[in-house]
TrEMBL record:
Family: Belongs to the CobU/CobP family.
Role description: Catalyzes ATP-dependent phosphorylation of adenosylcobinamide and addition of GMP to adenosylcobinamide phosphate.
UniProt enzyme class: transferase
Protein name: Adenosylcobinamide kinase
Presence of the UniProt keyword GTP-binding in the record: yes
Signal peptide positions (record): none
GO molecular function (one): nucleotidyltransferase activity
Pfam families listed in its UniProt record: CobU
Pathway(s): Cofactor biosynthesis; adenosylcobalamin biosynthesis; adenosylcobalamin from cob(II)yrinate a,c-diamide: step 5/7; Cofactor biosynthesis; adenosylcobalamin biosynthesis; adenosylcobalamin from cob(II)yrinate a,c-diamide: step 6/7
EC number: 2.7.1.156, 2.7.7.62
Top-level taxonomic group: Bacteria
Catalysed transformations (reactions): adenosylcob(III)inamide + ATP = adenosylcob(III)inamide phosphate + ADP + H(+); adenosylcob(III)inamide phosphate + GTP + H(+) = adenosylcob(III)inamide-GDP + diphosphate; adenosylcob(III)inamide + GTP = adenosylcob(III)inamide phosphate + GDP + H(+)
Keywords: ATP-binding, Cobalamin biosynthesis, GTP-binding, Kinase, Nucleotide-binding, Nucleotidyltransferase, Transferase
Amino acid sequence: MTVLVTGGARSGKSLHAESLLVAEPHVTYIAPRPTIELDDERAAQAAVQQARRPSHWTTLESADLASAVRQAEGAVLIDCLASWLGATLSELDGWESLREDWEPVLFERLDDALAAIAQHHAPVVVVTNEAGMGVVPDQRAGRLFRDLLGAVNQHVAAECDEVALVVAGRVLSL
């Protein structure tokens, strides 16, 4: 079973994703954060999220999704693709260089992660942000991120068994 859970910021998507795996005997929580220190607000949010997860869950921080999924034991929760995209764009210098120079590498990495997910022997739940429902960003970087995240989400959704949209804590099956 593979499930993509999407929604806006603070919509309840992570909580819903966690609830899908609460009965699993072992869960590997993959946090694809950039390899930088989190600011105080993000660190506090990460601490709250980790505290609410069962103690038998393992946390793995890695922007290399394919490798992380391949080494994961039990069910997998990836939270979230927006963090992965930001980390990968930074690593590939996507914010400053020409899109055609790095975009193929980005989607190769995504395809590799999707192959690892397809081969995984236990349920996988992937969380992402729905970034395309708001105001069009003024800055190039914001538009680039929004457009790429939309493409990444569509790519992942096409490979999932189920897709759920979370709005105000309510779950809609798509």
